[in-house]
Amino acid sequence: MTVLDLRHLLRLSALAGLALLPLAGWASAWQVSVDEQNGLPTVTRGGGPVMQAKFDFWAANWSWTGFYTTFKVNGPYHYTLQGKNKELDFDLAADIRKEQPQTLSWAFDLDAHSRQSGVIGGGMVFQFDPAQIAAGMGAPQLLPGNRGWSWGQVDQGRRIEMRFDPPLAKVYFERGNPSELRAFLYDNPINAGRKQIKAVLNVTGDIDLGPTPTERFGLADPASWPDDQLDWRTSPVDLSFLNAAEKPAGKRGFVKAVGEQLMFDDNTSVRFWGTNMSAYALFKSPDEEIRQQARRLSALGFNLVRLHHHDSPWVSPNVFGDGTLVRDTQQLSAESLRKLDLWIKALKDEGIYIWLDMHVQRAFTADDNIEDFNELPEKEGRVDLKGYAYVNDSIQKAMKRFAEQYLTHVNEYTGLAYKDDPAIAAVLITNENDITQHYGNALMPNKDVPQHSKRYMKAAEAFARQYDLPVDQTWRAWEHGPSKLFLNELEQRFSTDMIAHLRGLGVKVPIATTSTWGGNGLSALPALTVGDVIDAHSYGAIGQLEKNPLTSDGMIDWIAAAQVVGKPLTVTEWNAEPFPLPDRHSLPLYVAGTASHQGWDAMMQYAYSQQGFNPGWRTADNWHAYNDPAMLATLPAAALLYRRGDVKPATTHYVFAPTPATLYDQEITPRNSPLLRTAMEKGRLQIALPQTPQLPWLKPAALPADAQVLHDPQQSLLAADASESVTDTGELKRNWQQGIYTIDTPLTQAASGWLGGRSISLGALEVQTQTPYASVVLQSLDGKPLGQSRELLLSLGTRAMPKADDKTPFNVEPLQGSLTIKAPAGLKLFARDAQAQLKALPAAYKDGHYTVTFDGNYMSNWLFLK
Q1: Span 724-865: which CATH code?
Q2: Do the Cβ atoms of 670 and 536 come closer than 8 Å?
Q3: Domain coordinates of the chain in residue numbers?
Q4: What's this model's pTM, rounded to 2 decimal places?
Q5: What is the pLDDT of residues 162-196, one digit of tens each?
Q6: What is the rounded CA–CA span in Å between residue 202 and residue 454?
Q7: What secondary structure letter does DSSP report for 786?
Q8: Architecture of domain 240-456+482-654 in CATH?
Q9: 94-132: pLDDT as tens digits
Q10: Residue 769 burial by CB count (10 A; 0-12/13-18/19+): exposed, middle or buried?
Q11: Measured between alpha carbons, how far is residue 839 from residues 232, 300, 834, 864 in Å?
């Protein structure tokens, strides 16, 4: 667990040097900096990681042990790290400094409190990007005598060396893999006592040593910032007018997938801007708070909510009841269902639709009558079904039984079974449970699940013989080639059977099978097409606006790579981590702007809440957007621009159409394909899956007549020296070198990113801030173009940090700078406080423009000019 302790920084005289740190446009093509999670070096190229490091330690028999770190920024390029390993009984401390312009040093102090024998030991694991190894950096090289490693060549203009003194216990490549290197601080045995090790990292050539994110964003003490102005029961803005015509949800009939669009029965097309209601929020919230949150969700602009983690064993009660009393998962709890009934009713009354999952993380017990239960990996008396469901009929029967119980349950508040309620927008069969990449390996012969492996191997052999494929390659789930054909076939069989069962129950709405997630390549898409929609999950990290698409992938690229010709695209989860990322307020704008331009159909942030809505103590978390002023600063603005269609759809149409050999015989992902990254920066990107003789059920859609059909995943659609992209409509611009994203439309104008010290001019908005990183959004609320509108919403995003131990309220960084807004005379500026009271603020008016000045003291994330 990592804690960024910033509050002591004001006392440091070193702060005077912070003015010398570049705040924007810092990132060179190649950069080394210190990771704030673990204090180790990370190497990026164009904003994307090409070398990452972590600590790993193992007890006997490679049993992994927890190593927990606390990292502090003491001043510019000076950090300290504390680490503890309870199982191996040692502590680690490190003083980290930039000693010279091209040198970072670590002074490690290790203190083992007792002798540990029979252990593996451990230390640092360095993971290098295979694409960079192949592209010119070459493989990392070991320094002689366990003294470290080097990467790159001086004569090629770029080299990194990390040297340890005294030599380490051992330094080696994992199983001969040149992309993973292990540097052991401890070997077996670990002797009691202290030892010191110095590590020095040197860079040469076109590599910079850069600051950490905390240094870039500024070392102000968050405790000096004002508390947030959020009331968790009411919304700071009221966008419920977006849902007014849809009350109650379902009035237009069931949702259906028509070609690449989602529509209602009355043929009205629909875009869904949604979120996830998860875990304890479902079952631990008082009834009145459920109704209250439904009203708040509508006011925030949502029209879709996914009910998630209803079956997960870490949630108690869950849909099966009290986890301490439940002995099997064959019956559903009447009280838990009543809570879900109320959520559905309350959301429906507010014009909000519901997405239902048939399986998230359900764990079976020995009393669930699962065949070969004893060979499945067990944790606390329960086993997970992921992967095994594809070859175990009894698991499939259990999943069908749950679906029947869940979907035929009659909601006591609506009088409708879930399957018969048109407010239910869609159904997902199984969450993050593909066999094409993630869970095929669980069935391999070396996984000690003999009966499951036997079924898998039998099916693989039969498939190979049917299509004259090499048997010894068809079952090897970790490889590309024939195995990807078989895995798609196996996943399709399961999904087709489950879909038939759901349709037999009377399910009328679109069905998603599972999702593309966690690094799935394009070879995972064919099996997903047997569903009515393609669903995607995507999580990013810090710096999404700075990802150079010529070299690096971002979370947006992974969504774009899931848009298949002929199918609607839904995204049931998007977010970035780890919490609390200082730039997270920029994500909703980036997601909504891109989704509108690309024509994506349903976007669901993860998550609105995982905790119950109860008065009293509240925590801050990445999965609790409802009380996070950084995410909520721009989520309503994103909802408005996306649902209203403020950003026009792309006019240019790119279709990547791989051959079967291209698709199945190699890994193609946004990580290694410039085409997937660059095409969507300009026009709409879709994937056309090829007709595949071994997969006769895969029915490719007709290519759009206006499409530019592309075949080479390595093709780039941007100039080699590009530093920014502008969409074909001219409304979206992203300068990754500066880290700035702008939206310029008649009804929404926004600037987000490293705005500090710059002047950004849009149609009716000029932004000048001293705050290094911020988001500013100006929107018309009366539907008239900006410049003419007399009712304006101003959304402001800055850093928000929870108090100690992740307590709320947050401390929110006040914006410093000025905004110039073109608008009619006679308007007044207001802010709404936590008590929903309007407070008048000064705004000067001259020559048809209002000037709003922020002195860096007053904070409000939402202002109204009306």
Answers
A1: 2.60.220
A2: no
A3: 7-219, 240-456+482-654, 724-865
A4: 0.94
A5: 999 999 999 999 987 999 999 999 999 999 999 99
A6: 52
A7: T
A8: Alpha-Beta Barrel (3.20)
A9: 999 999 999 999 999 999 999 999 999 999 999 999 989
A10: buried
A11: 19, 20, 11, 10
